[in-house]
């Protein structure tokens, strides 16, 4: 079982673009990051458990930022 994966520049660029797009559209609409982020990370070839953990971490930061800057 391989626990590490080669992170080439293409994979890093793809995951960055998917994360940026997901956070951007989530900030505009108030949700829906999983519609962009999950398929993007799965398409990059990451294992499902890593994709799910990365998505939950990203959604946690999105929720924190929304609560922090939304309540004024």
Could you explain the architecture of this structure?
It contains three helices and no strands. By secondary structure, the chain is mainly alpha-helical. The protein has one domain (9-70). The radius of gyration is 13 Å and the shape is elongated. The mean pLDDT is 78.
> Helix share of residues?
over 70%
Poorly predicted parts: none
Give the ordered list of helices and strands: HHH
**Tally of separate domains:** 1
Kindly estimate the percentage of residues that lie in beta strands according to DSSP. Answer: under 5%
Tally of helical runs: 3
Structural class: mainly alpha
Largest sheet: none
Mean pLDDT metric: 78
Descriptors:
72 residues, mainly alpha, 3 helices, 75% helix
Task: Describe the structure in brief.
The chain has 72 residues and is an all-alpha fold.
Record the SSE blueprint:
Layout: H1 9-29, H2 34-43, H3 48-70
Helix pairs in contact: 1-2, 2-3
């Amino acid at each position: 079982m391989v626990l590490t994966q080669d992170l080439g520049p293409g994979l890093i660029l793809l995951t960055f673009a998917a994360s940026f797009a997901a956070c951007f559209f989530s900030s505009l609409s108030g949700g829906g990051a999983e519609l962009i982020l999950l398929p993007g990370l799965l398409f990059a070839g990451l294992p499902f458990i890593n994709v799910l953990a990365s998505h939950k971490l990203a959604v946690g930061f999105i929720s924190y930022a929304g609560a922090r800057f939304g309540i004024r």
